[in-house]
Amino acid sequence: MWSDTDQRQSPAAPALTEFPASHAKASSMTGFLKIEQLGMAYQSDKPVFSDVSFTIDKGEFVCIIGHSGCGKTTILNVLAGLDSATTGHAFMDGREIAGPSLERGVVFQSHALMPWLTVRQNIAFAVKSKWPEWKAPQVHVHVEKHVAMVGLLHAIDKKPSQLSGGMKQRVGIARAFAIQPKMLLLDEPFGALDALTRGTIQDELMGIVRQTQQTVFMITHDVDEAILLSDRILLMSNGNESDGRYVPGGLAEVVVNTLPRERTRAQLHHLPGYYDMRNHIVDFLVSRAKAH
Ligand SMILES: Nc1ncnc2c1ncn2[C@@H]1O[C@H](COP(=O)(O)OP(=O)(O)OP(=O)(O)O)[C@@H](O)[C@H]1O
Ligand SMILES: [Mg+2]
């Protein structure tokens, strides 16, 4: 079986951890990225989720899947250093995440481009922030390489308002890759793309990630996308009322992807174990993720 935690009966029971819990500020756990007992409560009596713990190793690609509102973006924002959790800690490379950093590239659920800058200028801005010592020609070459990667060279001098939603999302992806971060945080990066472009960019992403040993944390609603790209898939449950008692959401299960890493989109459906894994995740989403 591909799960490395026991399958839980209640979708909202506290998350099973992959390592002993600790409140210590300096983490001694293994793993490049560590999340320890994270909880977020906008309303104190109804935390969105609680006790979320997991680690991500260097070079690992981890996806998180769960229904709308379970707290996926909130977790990603904490990892990005853009939000603070109510409880728990997040560490990268042994240091607690305390704010945004150019070591982490983020692709937001809704693209976050500067509307007064062109595609070229948006990406160049990030590149110059990361490498202030670079001269203009070096920035230029680097920017064009990443714009070409997402197939937008023809629109490089356009402003975001002149682009479609999918094109804006691709600019966000190019910008995140261009700063060569230690960690990529992707919030439904392909949500606004048509199926063809989505496939092309998934292949591109997989190629670069394998080549550069990039560490990735990605939110997706697409089960096939998660199976294609990730080494492990975190299944997250929503908070729910059960017998008049509110139970926060959390990490319900971690699915380890045992398909060969060299898989491609075209042969995914023919790989032994693919349908079992897919059905397992879909069953979770249908019957366990949001039990009311
Ligand atoms: N600033 C905020 N103030 C109050 N509630 C918030 C705030 N931000 C998020 N929430 C609530 O927290 C919950 C989790 O939000 P989050 O955006 O993390 O969900 P998500 O899992 O990413 O959902 P989706 O799949 O729709 O993007 C939601 O119920 C949302 O309404
Ligand atoms: Mg979200």
- N- and C-termini, Cα separation: 27 Å
Rg, Å, rounded: 19 Å
Mean pLDDT: 86
Percentage of residues in DSSP E strands: 15-25%
The strands making up the biggest β-sheet line up spatially as 6-7-8-3-9-12
- What is the approximate shape? globular
Tally of separate helices: 7
Multimeric organization: single chain
Instruction: Tell me the series of helices and strands, N- to C-terminal.
Output: EEEHEEEHHHEHEHEEEEH
Bound molecules: adenosine-5'-triphosphate, magnesium ion
Characterize the structure shown:
The protein folds into two domains: 1-98 and 198-292, P-loop containing nucleotide triphosphate hydrolases (Rossmann fold), CATH 3.40.50.300; 104-180, no CATH class. It has seven helices and twelve strands. The model is unreliable at 1-29 (pLDDT under 50). It is α/β, with parallel strands linked by helices and 292 residues long. The protein has a six-stranded mixed beta sheet, sandwiched between helices. Strands 2-1-4-5 form a four-stranded antiparallel beta sheet, with helices on one face. Strands 10-11 form a two-stranded antiparallel ribbon. The longest helix has 18 residues, at 195-212. It binds adenosine-5'-triphosphate and magnesium ion. Adenosine-5'-triphosphate (ATP) binds at residues 42, 48, 66, 68-74, 109. The site of magnesium ion has 4 residues, from α1.
